[in-house]
Write a structure and sequence with these properties.
The protein is of the alpha+beta class. Helix content is about 35%, strand content about 35%. It has helices spanning about 5-10, 80-109; strands spanning about 15, 20-25, 25-35, 35-45, 45-50, 55, 75, 75-80. The strands form two sheets. Strands 1, 2, 3, 4, 5 and 8 form a six-stranded antiparallel sheet that branches. The protein has a two-stranded antiparallel sheet with strand order 6-7. Helix 1 (about 5-10) runs parallel beside helix 2 (about 80-109). The longest helix is centred in the C-terminal third of the chain and has 29 residues, at about 80-109.
């Protein structure tokens, strides 16, 4: 499956290039498609806030960097392959837990 398909299988709603995860009816997390991958956001105080992927190579080893004060020091794009892998593993683990649960219920019946 593609990264987008894995996000949807994990429970993200496809909202036209934005994949939004809802919890208790509220948007909590989203991925937005961009060139080469996705931008990730989370909700803080009612606003979408970017979640950096990693420290930019030119700033590796520099201490004291915070995204809130040094946003230029961070890479924001989560590569397609990484998002696909993360959510493929999550979907496989979820399926395994569901199968185990069903087996326990069947054994108890």
């Amino acid at each position: 499956m593609t990264a987008s398909e894995e996000l949807i299988a994990f429970g993200y709603a496809d909202e036209g290039g934005e994949y939004v995860k809802y919890k208790a009816g509220r948007a909590r997390d989203k991925y937005v498609t961009t060139e080469g991958g996705f931008l990730r956001y989370t909700r803080e105080d009612g606003q979408w806030v970017g979640v950096p992927h990693s420290v930019a190579k030119s700033f590796e080893g520099v201490s004291g960097l915070l995204y809130s004060t040094h946003p230029q020091c961070f890479e924001m794009v989560y590569p397609n392959a990484e998002v696909e892998h993360i959510y493929a593993v999550g979907n496989q683990e979820r399926a395994a837990r569901q199968a185990e649960s069903l087996a326990r219920k069947a054994a108890a019946a």
